[in-house]
């Protein structure tokens, strides 16, 4: 039997994760009081194969119940019931945007602001996060991306390092992405902006990619960039990092950064890394 406890930060995507698990055959139960977990697990393990996969959703909405979760999980170990923890994480700024978009209050921000509620929740969940078997950072994920990651881990059994790489293009004039781990400046590459017939196009188009990469400097830069990324990723895997954000920036985030970000995304996909892509500013002026 596979018994998965799904938890994490409020707004990080637990509901979507539970839906995805249900779609691949998990029997899903949401917000069961922690004091009942051991009894529930006992019933499941005594089902004699009628229930093969269980997903149990637990989050901070349990409030008073949540502090009992660690004790309940320890009881499962004592009884010999095997379980996994899936933790949904997300950056603070993205969580704030999600709450503002949905106009919902954070469960711990009734008497304070959203940021303080998130901070308090992180403190409460930190110990549980350290125990997690799989951590998914949904900061740059769409629901479909999360579904694919759930399928990769729980359907295909691929848990290689749990590292998700996000490649983001941006424009320096709009600010550096707050969640960037690595930032590369490509403002020295050939700029299509100064070619009138290319100015309104973006790095998503082949004519722009050809223009940017039709230079020995561009080719040499990408060789060195990919070589550095090849060196760094194993170090992050060794460290246990679960989300790496690589930001590629040019002046406006429309041509050069989009081109290089696309090339890097394709390069990492070919190496079978879990990689996401986001062009933050290419539609802006």
Structure, explained:
This protein is α/β, with parallel strands linked by helices. It folds into two domains: 2-154, P-loop containing nucleotide triphosphate hydrolases (Rossmann fold), CATH 3.40.50; 164-279, no CATH class. It contains nine helices and nine strands. It has helices at residues 14-23, 37-45, 69-79, 92-102, 114-131, 143-154, 206-213, 216-239, 256-270; strands spanning 2-8, 27-30, 53-57, 84-89, 134-137, 164-171, 182-185, 243-250, 274-279. It has a five-stranded parallel β-sheet with strand order 2-3-1-4-5, sandwiched between helices. α2 (37-45) links the parallel β2 and β3. α1 (14-23) crosses α6 and α4 packs across α5. The protein is elongated. The model has no long low-confidence stretch (mean pLDDT 88).
What level of helicity do the residues show?
Answer: 40-55%
Rg (CA only): 22 Å
Q: Helical element count?
A: 9
CATH C-level of the largest domain: Alpha Beta
The CATH topology name of the largest domain reads Rossmann fold
Low-pLDDT stretches are: none
Biggest sheet overview = 5 strands, parallel
How much strand?
Answer: 15-25%
Number of domains: 2
What is the number of beta strands? 9
Tell me, briefly, the overall form: elongated
Identify the CATH architecture of the largest domain.
3-Layer(aba) Sandwich
CATH superfamily of the largest domain: P-loop containing nucleotide triphosphate hydrolases
Mean pLDDT: 88
- Helix and strand element order: EHEHEHEHHEHEEHHEHE
- Order of the strands making up the biggest sheet: 2-3-1-4-5
């Amino acid at each position: 039997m596979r018994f998965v406890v799904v938890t994490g930060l409020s707004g990080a995507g637990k509901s979507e994760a539970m839906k995805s698990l249900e779609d691949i055959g998990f029997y899903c139960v949401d917000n069961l009081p922690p004091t009942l977990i051991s009894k529930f697990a006992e019933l499941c393990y005594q089902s004699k194969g009628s229930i093969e996969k269980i997903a149990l959703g637990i989050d901070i909405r349990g409030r008073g119940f949540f502090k009992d979760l660690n004790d309940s999980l320890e009881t499962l170990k004592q009884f010999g019931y095997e379980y996994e923890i899936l933790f949904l994480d997300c950056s603070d700024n993205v969580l704030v945007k999600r709450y503002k978009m949905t106009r919902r209050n954070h469960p711990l921000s009734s008497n304070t602001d959203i940021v303080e509620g998130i901070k308090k929740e992180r403190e409460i969940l930190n110990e549980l996060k350290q125990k997690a078997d799989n951590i998914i950072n949904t900061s740059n994920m769409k629901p479909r991306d999360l579904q694919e990651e759930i399928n990769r881990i729980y359907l295909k059994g691929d848990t290689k390092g749990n590292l998700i790489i996000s490649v983001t293009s941006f424009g320096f004039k709009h600010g550096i992405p707050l969640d960037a781990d690595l930032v590369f400046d490509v403002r020295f590459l050939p700029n299509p902006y100064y070619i009138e017939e290319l100015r309104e196009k973006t790095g998503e188009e082949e004519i722009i990619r050809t223009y940017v990469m039709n230079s020995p400097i561009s080719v040499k830069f990408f060789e060195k960039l990919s070589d550095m990324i090849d060196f760094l990723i194993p170090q992050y895997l060794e460290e246990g990092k679960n989300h790496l954000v690589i930001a590629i920036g040019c002046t406006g985030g429309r041509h050069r950064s989009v081109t290089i970000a696309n090339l890097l995304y394709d390069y990492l996909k070919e190496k079978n890394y879990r990689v996401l892509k986001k062009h933050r500013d290419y539609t802006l002026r």
